[in-house]
Amino acid sequence: MLTKFLNIKSLSFISSIPKFYLSTTNKIINNPELIKFINKNKTKQIDGITLIPNENYPGISILTRLNKIITNSLSKENSELENNAIRRSLNAFDLNSNNWEIKLKENTQNVNLLTMISYIGKNGKIMSLNYYHGGNNIFGFEQIKDNVLNNKLYEIEPQMGIVDMEKLYKQAKKFKPNLIFIGGNSYPRDWDYEYFKKISKKLNCLLMCDISQNYGLISSNLLKNPFKYCDIVTINSNILKSGIIYTKKKNNILKNQINNLMTKKQYLTNKNVLSIISNQMLEIKSNHYKYFSKEVIKNSKSLSEFLLKEGNRLSSNGTDTHLILWDCKPFGINGTQLKKTLELVNIYINKNSIVGDSNLKNPEGVLLGLYDLTYRGIREKDIDDIGRFLMRGTKICQKYAYFHGKQFMQYIKNDKEIPLLKNDVLKFVKKFPIYYSKH
């Protein structure tokens, strides 16, 4: 049975998924490579501390929507699913269909780029946050993929760690952008949408925002609402497996531009994904999700406070969201070294660039996110343990700071502290099982 291949007792927690899959010969299909990959990732998720910002467990309610019944439904029923997904996506942020239009894209790739080009053309002028200051991994550089768009970067104020709005305005007056883009992969603070709107209004340009990192926190009213000020808002989500484009109904010209550019092939047609969007957007409006969101921010603030008390340097000296950007330079190590060290003890993080960085391969910072741990039931009282694990890993890493690449791994994997720390991590995570840990 499939349960045996997956090393689980039952698939009953997803009631709509069959117990096994039969081929045309009525025999169970054995795919050992796939099963090995699944079990490897299952073990990693159960036995590890995941602090990667864009990784989070989809709820059981999401998994139950990935089912055979929807997959086998007729294509003509897509419109019903799509309308439901659009309605839920509007309701998630208390939006009115008279004022906002939604387009659902088949995948998350190039959603922002496609949207920008549809409104301002391939030679349009945009302003976006510098990647090394927390910006987007596509629009955080002056040269964008395929040499489209003319991009001017704005930056954070180094001491405060927040966007320097006055400097941005001075740049914008001179540059005269067609569109200002708000959004970043590693910006830990909330955005001053109102100030951005004042600038865009004075310059008569569009204001666009990507809320992929924080859309749940925004829906829970824990962060400022970009829909009050922006002309375009996008979501590119790994959980949703799609891109969502919200456009304010200003005039028919803008509407026609995006309709003409997004061909039918680019529209979302996957039934399971449409059902996931509908369910996720309904869930983020629920009371239990609002409680979860509050706990995410509490945990993020608690961990940032712990790290600061230990003498660490964080971007903006803290966080408003689930993100913490941690500077490794004071320890004499880089983000790659710390990432590899922590992986040896089942702690998973992202290496990330910080202000002043120039090496994308070996940046001098790491990015932490607290969605995953909060979902597992970890609360403020447990956060100091996470902080201590991180500090122990950092001290181990420091011993081998002068080594790089394969040589670094050869030395550090044999450090006597590694198995001790890994054992403590395993003991800790067993107190916080994932919903499929016992299956």
Description:
- By secondary structure, this protein is an alpha/beta fold.
- The chain contains 17 helices and 15 strands.
- The strands form 4 sheets. A 7-stranded mixed beta sheet has the order 2-10-9-8-7-3-4, with helices on both faces.
- Helix 8 (193-203) links the parallel strand 7 (179-182) and strand 8.
- The radius of gyration is 23 Å and the shape is globular.
Strands in their spatial order, largest beta sheet: 2-10-9-8-7-3-4
Query: How many H/I helical runs?
Result: 17
Shape type: globular
Tally of domains = 3
Main β-sheet: number of strands, strand sense, barrel status?
A: 7 strands, mixed
Extract low-pLDDT stretches.
Answer: 1-8, 10-26
How are the elements arranged and paired?
Elements: H1 2-5, H2 32-47, E1 49-50, H3 60-63, H4 68-71, H5 78-91, E2 100-105, H6 111-120, E3 125-129, E4 150-154, E5 156-157, E6 162-163, H7 165-175, E7 179-182, H8 193-203, E8 206-210, H9 215-219, E9 232-237, E10 242-248, H10 252-261, H11 271-283, H12 287-309, E11 313-314, E12 323-327, H13 335-343, E13 347-348, E14 350-352, E15 365-369, H14 371-375, H15 380-398, H16 405-412, H17 417-429
Parallel strand pairs: 1-13, 3-4, 3-7, 7-8, 8-9
Antiparallel strand pairs: 2-10, 5-6, 9-10, 11-12, 12-15, 14-15
Helix pairs in contact: 5-11, 6-10, 7-8, 12-15, 13-15, 15-17
